[in-house]
Structure to design on (1530 residues):
């Protein structure tokens, strides 16, 4: 009884394990951003009615205690003086900072006039909905009073401001300002992306140069966009490319792209988003910058609004339809954007790698502010995310079924609102999130442990050490609720270092300085920027955590003026105040890239101008519920001497209705040559090909596996092709007729009769995904092929790759086959008979894409590297929680469909929502007439019992790429490190790429044939695997594989030198020279 | 003991209910109400115009077949509509009230076609309670028969390929050819019902029977016919939006908008203003005509049935051409070549431009109605009052159809060719329906004098 009582008490407490929330009564911080909805002003009149106010933390009176300023939308702003012991005094009136604008937004502190005192800049929305006023600048008088001086400084903007950020973009020593404005442009049409080029006074962002206490608008000359469609909600400043000049990342809501401004160092910026990002958040909200992987390169988190909860997820409007996305990107010129948080890992020399799904932070619902910091002081960056919205306007039932005549009338004529319609919008008060960082890009959700579960609508968020105990506390500005203080209780459980800067001149807080901490060989990197998160600024300090370690080897500071100083053997648990000491210049770049360039792109491609163009067939229009596409698995590539001159030629397959191309090697490069028999077969989609002398007449022949997933039943273009070389032409030969979508051709003389046989692996049956295709060995009989019947091999599954290799060391080539929804399967070759070998890999079903033998652990036997889907996607699978695919003719219309589910809280939920499922299973529209009836239901609540019963269920237990480690003929799966899990690994190639005399394996991947809900799986730049713990990523190797979807890697010999050929889907082929391997 | 008490109770209740049976009177208004209910639910469930036309047709046909079997004035559609066979005969007890059975069949087929069944069930159950208390014998016999006929019609209906078209491939936008249709603002929805021409026609021999001439050839040369039509849409739009509220053309465009799902987006706030479809508008006009002429129950069903069949075939015929020519909408081109911020007065609906659906349907429906109520039938159209639109007066169905057609140009969503060719296509089709469908025992042709 006593225990129960205790538990109950425990539940009711205001304590999280890491943060406690002292009450407003105790702290004196009673500010609440109370919103008063009226008939003239609500979410219908102003789209950002619920974005909330701002919060800024900083010591305004120099007593060493950080003070708090909170801005309100409709209520007056408040300044709370920190009196110590977490008690605060409201000095707003005396200080004169209550503000006069009708609608305040972001509030930030910064020393605008460079007098060493923090001033306060408060943004406002002015000029719509009867909002008056202007952005106010409260200059600190040094006696806890302020003088509003915005006009004097030229900062009294009457625009739609959401926030402002301080930076010294021209490095002239004073603080300039980036003013973030938001659009109210109607959402009626996308408009072309070049709308951003026409400046708009009220909505356009501005860059304001500090010319000695007056600010000058330099936006236009600096190359800052200021269009009518920039819904700026997030701004982050950092030296992203580490060239010493501050850069800017701007998050824009809705269809406008985010902006990535790289500072040219001459007063101008170059917006470079598409060049460096594969995809971004769609409804970009707040963002933050931090180096989460200890490489000294700033990474970015940008927030969106994907719900984690199934019920909310399935009743909210989701991502665009694929065709709309195509239109928006192709016709209107926008970039790929998806509705979920994105974590962009900075990759020097390449594109940012986006890892939010892999990192576990993609879905935090309606999110406003994110702050990176080491809250538990273990040396890794954690993340706090505030979220919530009083009403969810994207609720599907609301959208579809609200009584809406009144709303429309209201919007058009500002008449009375139908309150009932507004009431139909469900509330979105969801608990804030906090994640614990780890050393491998993954974050652990600690929302239920570290903080008390709240039901607050929290927006702007700022950090500071409010109680001066060394750990970081948080303040959130909430809607209709007093601001929350999250007081950190790490205290002396882990070690810290706090640094404050004293920089001479007009930037006393050293904004833009870089601080590098080294301990135990670990780098922690920070930049001093205070405007972070969303509509907020944090205390101007830098904070590091060290766990139990007590010794910091060194602290390096690089000041904005590029001078630097080094502090050695720094003690933990103290606050250092550092001023520049000596005039030592830092040398840029400060981080010498660990480049290991062994590949170099060949200009002119040796004449290989082949550019693969995918045809317009779109699988999801016909097979609406398949998990991914199959029509994009080409093109085929094959290398061999087709002209009998001793030199290698190359064949590239074409997609459906597009001719293949054959390039012949000449002394000065490759030249296209047409072989009419082959070319005329352009109707087929060539997915795989092999060049080999099958009929042993001394001339190479060509075998092509066809697919494309469009042709179906017994349509002739599904037949594979076999051409033999006669004289100088090719003649088409007969093949056993099987109508399949090919995925792999693996050749070997498995029966040791002196000619090459061929394993033909097939991936799927068109219009009937889930049905096992027919795969087989073609036995070569004097140049003619016959199918070798083998029941267990013929129906093995949805094959993607295969390799002949003597895994049991008996001297004959065995066959190992991998595929999707199946386990890697071994067939031992017993005197020409292939017998399935049980390797006890039952729990190893994957979405396997590729396999290659390689002794990765260098123990002398052969292991098998396996390319899988990777961990950076919406698919989730483990042995306990399998990814499942239900396959049956659920709607009894004579054709089958598949439903893919992922497990959450022990139940299998379809990935597709009601809209998607009912496009195929229309009866669901009748079963669930409202989204709320469907949302939150697992598959057993959606399909009928009969439907579930008749379904064949496929499972995937493993999505990691990895290898099968050979332990005396037994195989154990070992997953690769996280850097190889960024995207599907589509292909491997073994070769001595670096010329060190030993073979390495090159892995490459990425895949885009998924619905917009999945985003784009493009963050893998390729990697060279030398051994288990020696992996070099593609960007460092000189490879340009990121955001391209590779199909094949090949080595071709040209003038006795090896070249790497990388063949992509829907892209131009790439040719690389091997810098260190110059051949024989 | 318990059992005895309950038996007693039932007995008492039965005794209590025992009263004199009175005949059940079914008025035309009750049928109008049933049709109105269906229209209402369709607005809620959001059916596209072609699908809505099908939902109107089958319940009416079921009701009409029962009426035709009992009223010598009318003639069954079995053998006249493609694949329709005669409905079963009622039990020879003579207890079936054909009007009641017709209404029940109408409700039952409607229930099968819409999504939100509970909405129709509430209406039905309250009627059932009333009828069964008045005259359980007549009610039960009529109900059994009505549902039997409904099963018969449903079996025929289920073979019209609708179910198959639901799971046929979605429309693939052709982005390579500039003349082809592109999704339009604000929701850029994919083309709806690309396979509607695969639905079994009702009277027509095939979807392509009334295939219109091809639209003017796409060209962005200013001197081309096509471009001139493009410019015309823009010019009209600019002129009438300048006139603003006083513009008669805008009033006409809005009156005939009949878009079941107009998307509205304000930031994250999204919703749709939902209205009736073009078909429902003409069903509304049918009701006005019936009431104005004080048509009896049987004639009312006859009028609804004929009009809804003509419209259902009109949608098949129209959609056949829409996805054949797959023509781009004025909005896309005007934004591309003339004015990138131009918006049409009406929201562009999500399917190819040519021909205008409202024009074809109005042509067909007005011809059917003229054959029933005559050419000079003046009426006041108050169908759209519930959407805040005024009453408009017409001197004939044909005049209304012409106005509905041209409204699409005023609305900025169609070129002239789509409107003019469309209304002609509809009239030809309507005439064919009228001439080939003998719904009355005596020839009806006399009434169609145009």
């Amino acid at each position: 009884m006593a225990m129960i009582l205790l538990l109950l008490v425990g539940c009711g407490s205001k304590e999280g394990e890491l943060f406690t929330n002292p009450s407003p009564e105790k702290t004196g911080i009673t500010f609440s951003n109370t919103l008063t909805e009226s008939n003239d002003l609500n979410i219908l009149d102003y789209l950002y009615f619920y974005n909330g106010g701002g919060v800024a933390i900083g010591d305004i009176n120099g007593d060493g205690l950080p003070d708090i300023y909170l801005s309100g939308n409709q209520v007056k702003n408040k300044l709370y003086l920190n009196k110590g012991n977490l008690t605060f005094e409201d000095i707003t009136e005396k200080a004169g900072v209550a503000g006069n604008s009708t609608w305040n937004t972001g509030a930030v502190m910064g020393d605008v006039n460079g007098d060493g005192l923090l001033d306060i800049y408060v943004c406002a929305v002015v000029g719509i909905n009867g909002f008056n006023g202007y952005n106010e600048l409260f200059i600190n008088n040094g006696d806890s009073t302020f003088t509003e001086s915005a006009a004097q400084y030229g900062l009294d903007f009457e625009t739609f401001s959401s926030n402002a950020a301080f930076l010294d973009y021209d490095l002239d020593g004073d603080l300039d300002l980036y003013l973030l404005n938001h659009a109210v442009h109607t959402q009626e049409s996308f408009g072309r992306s070049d709308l951003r080029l026409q400046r708009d006074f009220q909505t356009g962002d501005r860059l304001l140069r500090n010319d000695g206490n007056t600010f000058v608008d330099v936006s236009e000359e600096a190359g800052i966009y200021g269009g009518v469609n920039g819904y700026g909600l997030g701004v982050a400043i950092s030296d992203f490319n580490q060239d010493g000049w501050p850069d800017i990342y701007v998050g824009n809501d809705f269809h406008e792209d985010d902006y990535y401004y790289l500072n040219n160092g001459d007063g101008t910026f170059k917006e470079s988003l598409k060049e460096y990002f594969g995809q971004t958040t769609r409804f970009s909200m707040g963002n933050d910058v931090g180096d989460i992987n200890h490489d000294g390169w700033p990474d970015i988190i940008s927030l969106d609004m994907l719900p984690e909860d199934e019920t909310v997820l399935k009743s909210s409007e989701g991502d665009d339809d694929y065709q709309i996305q195509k239109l928006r990107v192709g016709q209107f010129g926008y970039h790929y954007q998806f509705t979920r948080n994105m974590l962009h890992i900075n990759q020097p020399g390449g594109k940012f790698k986006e890892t939010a799904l892999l990192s576990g932070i993609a879905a935090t619902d309606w999110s406003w502010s994110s702050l990176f910091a080491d809250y538990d002081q273990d040396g890794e960056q954690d993340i706090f995310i505030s979220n919530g919205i009083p009403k969810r306007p994207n609720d599907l039932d609301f959208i579809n079924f609200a009584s809406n005549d009144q709303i429309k009338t209201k919007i058009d004529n500002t008449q009375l609102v139908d309150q009932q319609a507004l009431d139909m919008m469900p509330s979105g008060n969801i608990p804030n999130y906090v994640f614990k960082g780890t050393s491998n890009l993954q974050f652990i959700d600690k929302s239920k442990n570290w903080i008390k579960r709240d039901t607050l609508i929290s927006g702007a968020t700022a950090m500071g050490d409010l109680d001066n105990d060394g750990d970081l506390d948080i303040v959130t500005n909430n809607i209709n609720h007093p601001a929350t203080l999250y007081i950190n209780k790490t205290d002396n459980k882990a070690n810290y270092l706090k640094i404050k800067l004293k920089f001479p001149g007009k930037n006393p807080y050293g904004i833009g300085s870089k601080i590098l901490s080294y301990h135990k060989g670990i780098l922690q990197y920070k930049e001093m920027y205070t405007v972070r998160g969303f509509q907020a600024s944090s205390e101007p300090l830098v904070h590091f955590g060290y766990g139990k370690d007590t010794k910091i080897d060194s602290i390096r500071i690089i000041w904005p003026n590029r001078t630097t100083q080094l502090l050695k053997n720094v003690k933990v648990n103290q606050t250092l105040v550092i001023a520049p000491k000596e005039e030592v210049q830092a040398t840029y770049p400060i981080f010498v890239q660990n480049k290991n360039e062994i590949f170099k792109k060949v200009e002119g491609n040796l004449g290989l101008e082949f550019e693969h163009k995918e045809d317009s067939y779109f699988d999801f229009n016909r097979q609406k519920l398949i998990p991914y596409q199959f029509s994009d698995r080409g093109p085929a590539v094959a290398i061999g001497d087709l002209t009998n001159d001793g030199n290698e030629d190359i064949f590239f397959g074409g997609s459906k209705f597009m001719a293949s191309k054959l390039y012949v090697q000449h002394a000065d490069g490759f030249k296209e040559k047409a072989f009419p028999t082959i070319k005329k077969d352009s109707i087929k989609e060539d997915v795989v090909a092999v060049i080999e002398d099958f009929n042993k007449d001394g001339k190479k022949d060509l075998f092509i596996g066809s697919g494309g997933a469009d042709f179906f039943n017994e349509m002739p273009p599904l037949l594979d092709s076999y051409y033999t070389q006669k004289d100088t032409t090719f003649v088409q030969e007969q093949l056993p007729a099987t109508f399949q979508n090919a995925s792999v051709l693996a050749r070997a003389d498995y029966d040791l009769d002196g000619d090459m046989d061929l394993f033909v692996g097939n991936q799927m049956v068109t219009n009937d995904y889930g049905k096992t295709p027919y795969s087989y060995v073609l036995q070569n009989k004097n140049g003619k092929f016959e199918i070798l019947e083998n029941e267990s091999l013929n129906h093995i599954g949805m094959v993607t790759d295969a390799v002949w290799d003597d895994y049991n060391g008996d001297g004959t080539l065995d066959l190992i086959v991998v595929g999707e929804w199946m386990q890697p399967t071994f067939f031992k070759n017993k005197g020409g008979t292939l017998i399935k070998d049980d390797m006890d890999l039952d729990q190893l079903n994957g979405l396997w894409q590729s396999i290659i033998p390689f002794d990765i652990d260098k123990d002398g036997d052969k292991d098998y590297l396996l390319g899988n889907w990777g961990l950076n996607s919406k698919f989730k699978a483990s042995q306990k929680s399998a990814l499942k695919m239900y396959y049956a003719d659920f709607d009894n219309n004579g054709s089958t469909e598949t439903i893919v589910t992922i497990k959450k809280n022990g139940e299998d939920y379809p990935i597709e929502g009601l809209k998607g499922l009912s496009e195929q299973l229309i009866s669901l529209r009748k079963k669930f007439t409202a989204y709320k009836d469907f949302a939150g239901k697992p598959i057993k609540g959606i399909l009928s019992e009969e439907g579930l019963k008749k379904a064949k269920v496929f499972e995937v237990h493993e999505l990691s790429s990895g290898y099968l480690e050979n332990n005396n003929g037994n195989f154990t799966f070992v997953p690769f490190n996280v850097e190889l899990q960024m995207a599907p690994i589509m292909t491997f190639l073994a070769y001595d790429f670096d010329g060190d005399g030993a073979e390495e394996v090159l892995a490459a991947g990425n895949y885009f044939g998924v619905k917009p809900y999945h985003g784009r799986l493009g963050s893998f730049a390729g990697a060279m695997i030398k051994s288990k713990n020696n992996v070099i990523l593609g960007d460092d190797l000189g490879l340009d594989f990121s955001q391209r979807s590779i199909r094949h890697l090949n080595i071709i010999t040209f003038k006795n030198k090896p070249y790497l050929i990388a063949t992509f889907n829907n892209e131009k082929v790439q040719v690389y020279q091997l810098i260190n391997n110059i051949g024989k | 003991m318990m059992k005895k008490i309950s038996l007693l109770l039932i007995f008492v209740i039965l005794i209590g209910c025992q009263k004199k049976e009175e005949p059940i009177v079914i008025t035309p208004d009750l049928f109008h109400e049933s049709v109105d209910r269906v229209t209402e639910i369709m607005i809620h469930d959001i059916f596209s115009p072609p699908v809505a036309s099908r939902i109107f047709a089958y319940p009416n046909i079921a009701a009409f077949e029962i009426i035709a079997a009992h009223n010598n004035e009318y003639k069954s559609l079995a053998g006249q509509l493609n694949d329709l066979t005669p409905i079963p005969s009622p039990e020879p007890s003579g207890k079936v009230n054909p009007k009641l059975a017709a209404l029940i069949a109408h409700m039952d087929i409607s229930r099968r076609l819409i999504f939100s069944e509970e909405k129709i069930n509430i209406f039905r159950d309250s009627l059932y309670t009333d009828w069964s208390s008045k005259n359980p014998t007549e009610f039960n016999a009529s109900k059994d028969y009505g549902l039997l006929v409904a099963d018969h019609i449903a079996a025929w209906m289920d073979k019209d390929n609708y179910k198959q078209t639901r799971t046929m491939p979605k429309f693939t936008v052709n982005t390579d050819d500039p003349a082809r249709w592109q999704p339009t603002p604000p929701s850029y929805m994919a083309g709806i019902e690309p396979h509607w021409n695969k639905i079994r026609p009702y009277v027509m021999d095939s979807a392509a029977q009334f295939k219109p001439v091809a639209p003017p050839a796409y060209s962005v040369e200013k001197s081309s016919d096509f471009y001139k039509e493009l410019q015309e849409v823009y010019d009209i739009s600019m002129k009438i939006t300048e006139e603003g509220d006083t513009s008669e053309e805008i009033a006409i465009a809005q009156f005939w908008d009949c878009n079941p799902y107009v998307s509205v987006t304000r930031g994250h706030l999204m919703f749709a203003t939902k209205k009736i479809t073009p078909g429902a508008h003409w069903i509304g006009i049918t009701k006005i005509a019936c009431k104005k002429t004080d048509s009896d129950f049987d004639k009312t069903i006859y009028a609804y049935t004929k009009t809804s069949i003509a419209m259902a075939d009109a949608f098949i015929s129209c959609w056949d051409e829409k996805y054949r020519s797959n023509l781009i909408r004025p909005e896309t081109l005007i934004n591309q070549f003339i004015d990138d911020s131009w918006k049409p007065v009406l929201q562009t609906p999500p399917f190819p431009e040519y021909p205008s659906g409202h024009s074809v349907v109005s042509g067909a429906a007005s011809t059917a109605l003229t054959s029933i109520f005559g050419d000079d039938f003046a009426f006041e159209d108050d169908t759209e009052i519930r959407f805040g639109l005024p009453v408009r007066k017409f001197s004939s169905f044909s005049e209304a159809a012409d106005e509905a057609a041209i409204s699409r140009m005023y609305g900025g969503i169609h070129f002239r060719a789509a409107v003019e060719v469309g209304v002609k296509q509809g009239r030809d089709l309507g005439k064919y329906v009228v001439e080939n469908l003998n719904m009355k025992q005596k020839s009806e042709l006399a009434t169609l004098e145009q």
User: Anything to note?
Assistant: Chain B touches chain A at residues 44-46, 115-118, 163-164, 166-167, 169-176, 182-183, 185-186, 188, 190, 264-274, 335, 340-341, 343, 387-388 (CB under 8 Å). The two ends of chain B are 78 Å apart (CA to CA). Strands of chain B lie at 262-266, 269-273, 379-381, 392-394. The longest helix of chain B spans residues 297-325.
